[in-house]
Fold this sequence. Notes:
Blueprint: E1 5-9, H1 13-24, E2 28-32, E3 53-54, H2 58-63, H3 73-78, H4 81-90, E4 95-98, E5 102-105, H5 110-123, E6 127-129, E7 134-140, E8 143-149, E9 165-168, E10 171-174, H6 189-196, E11 201-207, E12 211-213, H7 217-220, E13 225-235, E14 238-249, E15 253-255, H8 257-271, E16 276-281, H9 288-301, H10 307-310, H11 320-327, H12 340-351, E17 353-360, E18 368-373, E19 391-393, H13 407-427
Parallel strand pairs: 1-2, 1-10, 2-6, 10-19
Antiparallel strand pairs: 3-5, 4-5, 7-8, 8-9, 11-18, 12-15, 12-17, 13-14, 13-16, 14-15, 16-17
Amino acid sequence: MTDRRVIVIGAGAAGLMAAGQVAELGADVLLLEKMNRPARKLRITGKGRCNLTNVAPIPQFIEHFGPGGRFLRQAFHRFFTSDLVAFFEELGVPTVTERGGRVFPASEEAQDVVDALTRWVRQRGVALRTESPVERLVVEEGRMVGVRVSARNQVSAVSKAAKPGFYHADAVIVATGGASYPGTGSTGDGYRMAEAVGHTIVPIRPALVPLETAGDIALRLQGLSLRNVTARLLVGGKKQAELFGEMLFTHFGVSGPIILSLSRRAVDALRQGQRVTLSIDLKPALDERKLDARLLRDLDAHGKRQFRTLLKGLLPQKLIPVCADLTSISPTKLAHQVTAQERERLRVWLKDFRLDVTGHRPLAEAIITAGGVDTREVDPRTMESRLVEGLYFAGEVLDVDADTGGYNLQAAFSTGWLAGRAAGNRAA
């Protein structure tokens, strides 16, 4: 038994980064992962392409986390985008920057990121043990003394699993992820462990999750992707947020980047029993006056065309019958017969196509989890618990979450780096 051991629980993005940083400082590191291989969720991020981070400057970056983003300021100032890009370059994973400042591995393969991180920690001497579920944290007199590993899993004959029982540690880093995508191992274990030693858990709920809508409009539009539109989230009739970009219709409602980024506010409002509506501006590049002038020109120039034919210049084919229904304009009506009142209804609908939000997909389908360990009980300079000496947190287990675009993964790497350095300095 060493007096210089750090145990990291969870071999995801935050846990791998933390374990490697501890090892670089010379401490003995035991990395415990309950699944049969590390970083299962990381393998599927960014649709398998792995959106590592974003090139936005720190103040703008933090805004994407909402009010909770201030907690991450210290971590980002210590280890941020340029540091992460340089880190992966050294590991043989060059990156590219795409639209919206999103940074991806040049290979567009998340597996390359996982392989590089796993190779790096092993080269640093980290003892990675898969199929090793931690049952609980062991605390004595207000400080960490170790963890207890469960015998729940059926360990395979070839697995390098930790044997059930107690493992001593001078510091423990909890990097167990959230509770979304449970098939990857994110089942909320860290929340239960933290709560058991006195930490407050902000209620968890889905974030970056598709939304369910009323009626059959979404079903009729299933598979339709809209680009360059603006979606506004209305709560109780008042605008809460708006985003420009891409969205997708599904059989149950809506998804896509801008919907996912609006979803956290929608979920919280629905939980409070408030009315939630999406207002979609299908022509954000045109103000009301310019759009009306465009409609007048089209109607005058193509007076003998049917209304549905005229709409082909304005809308995707799949959206045309929905437009006709919702504006109550006959699709076979000739353009020169469209009245001023009908033209106004069309103009209003194009700028304010509304869908009532009735719910959201379950937490298991969310990209990330909102809620988690209350950051007021964690030191932002080190990621150490303010309640238990030698206990650290990193990644999604903390109550921080952001929009899509690489922000959440950078937070995992940054908090993992900071927790690893702090725990490593304690143990070294």
